[in-house]
C-alpha cells in the first residue's frame, strides 16, 4: 500500500506542472541566496582569520613623530601587551616610465635579515633582502603585476627629499593590506597605489631616523583586546613627549574595517533574503495543500473507509510538500554554489589575498536543504491536519458549494455602481476567499520589501558618489606637501600648466576631548571663501566655514554626543601641544571618513603660527592635454609628497567596487522579481485549476480566453497594488537594518528611500507580474473550456 501511495504521489507531482514549478522556483532562489551568501561569508571569514594568524596581524598601530627605539622598554610592561615592535613608515611617490603622473605609495621598513615580525609579509615571487646592497625593495604583488614589474627590475621612489632607484628583489602579500587604501581612497587602486618594503637600515638613513622609529605595532593578549582603547591611552601617555599623531586599534584599521564590514553585510543579507523567500514558499505550499485536500477529499474518505491508518494518510499528504521543498532545496544548493564561486571571484578582484578559494561546505548544503524542507513542511502542516480531521462519511461526499451573498463593498453603492461587471466579479472573488487574498497580499508585501530594499541601496550608492565627489570634494587634484609651506608654494603651483584655481588647506592632527572621551583625528583648515571643499548637511545644502569654531561630521558628533553650540576641547599633536576650546557651529554630513573643518585663519591664530599650508587643492583645465602636462610637471616638484587625482579615484571606485556591487545587486533584483513571478504564477495556476467550471461557463456565454485572463489580471493587479503599498514601509525597515551594518568611521551607507524607489519597485514588480500572467494566459488559451462544462453522467 505504501508503494502505491508513492506512485500516486509521483503522478500528482508530475501532473501539478506549473504549481510545482512556482514553489520550486521561489524555494530554489531563497536557498541559492542562503548558500551563496553564507558560503561567501565563510570564504572571506576563513581567509581573513587564516592570513591574520599566519601573518601575525597586529592589534594596534601608533604613529609618532620620532621615537627613540630605546624607549620601547618603557612600554613592554604595560598590562596586556604581548609584543611591540618599532618600524618606519612614510608616504612615497613612485615614478614609473610608462606613467604620465607620479603614483602614490607607502614605504615600510622591515628587518635587514629575515626574522618573524608582526604583520609578516609572505613572499610570492623572488625572495627577501639579499644583504648585498642597501637599495633593495620588496613590492606588493598586485601593484607589481599591474605594472609588469619583475624581480630584478629597477623602480624609482621619492623617499623624503631623496630620489632613489631601487632594485626589486621580491613581490609579497601582507595581511596588513588585504584592502590597501591609498590616501583619501574608498577602494583599492591596484595601479595607482603600492606598498614598498625597505631595509630598516636603509629607511633609517633615508628618513633621518637613526635609532628611531615613527610607528609602533603591537599585539595584545586575547583578554586585553576588549580594552584596546584603554591600553592605547596608557601607551600614548608614556610616549606623549614624542608627539603621538594617531593610535588605531585593529577594529578601526581601514583595511580590516572594510573587510569586516563586508563580512557582516553578508551575514545580514544571508538572513534577510532567504527568510523572505522561504516564508513566501511556505505560504504558497499552504495554499496548494489546502486546495489539494479539497480536490482529493473523496479519495481520502475512501482510503479511511477501507481502513487505512490516519498517520499513513497524513504522511502521504505531507510528502507532497516535503518532496517539493527538497527539490527546491537541492536545485537551490547547486545554483547557490555557482553564485558563491562567482561572488568569491569578485571579492578576489579587490581584496588582496594571495589565495581566496571558494569552498563547498557540505554542512551548509545539508542545512540549506533542511531549511527548504522545514519551510515546505510548515506550509503543508495545515493541509495534513485537515486530512486527518476528515470523517470518512463526510469526506466521501462532495464538498458543499461555497455560500454566496453580497460582499461589504456592495453596500458602498456609489462605489459599486461605478464598477464594470468584470471588476465586480474580481472584488467578489477576492472578498469571498479572504485567506487566499491575505496570503497573496503577504507574498506581494514581502516581494515589494526585498525589491525596494535593494533599489534603495543602489540609489544610496549613487548618492554617496555624487555627494562625495561632486558636492563636497570638488577639486580635480590635491597635493600633499612634505612639510608646511608658506604662500610662495601656492604661487609656484599656480604657474603649472592647466591650473585654473588653487586653494590652501591646513590639515592639523589633533586630539578631540569631550566629557572624558578622547579621539585622535584631524582638523581641516579651509579658507572662508573656499570653492573646492564644501561641507554640506544631509540635504546637500552648503555649510559656511565659521570665523571661529568647528564644523564637525555627524559621525563624530554622534560618537561624542555633540550638538551645535557645544564646546569641544582639542590639542594639536605637534607644535604647542596645549588644550584649546572651540564651539561647534554646525554638523556636516559625510559618508567617507570623519571630518572636522575650521577657518584656516582661525587655526593659525590659535596655534600662533604663520599662514602655513600642507595641502593644496587644485581645479584643472578640462583640456586633456593640459591635464597631462600638469601631472607630468609634478614629477619635478620636490615639495610634493603625495598626489591625489580625484578623477582616477572616482574611476577606480566605479570600475571596481561599484561594478561588482551592480553585478551582485542585479542578481538580487532578479531574485526579488522571482518572488513576484512565483507568487502570482502559483495564484494564477491555482485559480485556473479551481475555477474551470466557472471559466468554462463564461466561455460558453461568449467570453474569450483573453477576457477570462483579464479577470485574473485584475485580481493580480489589486493584490499587487495593495502589496506594493503595504510592502514599501517594510522595505524601508530592511534597508535601515542593512545600512546599519555598514556604519563606521571609514565608510557609511546613506539611507535613502525617495519616490524613485517606489516607482522603480512598482515598475519591476509589474514587469515580473506581467511575465507570470503571460504564462497563465497561455494556459487559458490551451484549455479546452467546452470539455469543462460537460456534466458527468
TrEMBL record:
Assigned keywords, A-Z: Cell membrane, Membrane, Transmembrane, Transmembrane helix
Domain MacB-like periplasmic core: from-to ranges: 23-195
Compartments reported by the entry: Cell membrane
Main location: membrane
Domain ABC3 transporter permease C-terminal: 272-391, 674-771
GO CC terms, sorted: plasma membrane protein complex
TM ranges: 12-37, 268-290, 317-340, 364-381, 438-461, 661-688, 717-735, 755-776
Keyword Transmembrane: yes
Keyword presence, Cell membrane: yes
Protein family membership: Belongs to the ABC-4 integral membrane protein family. LolC/E subfamily.
Protein name: ABC-type antimicrobial peptide transport system, permease component
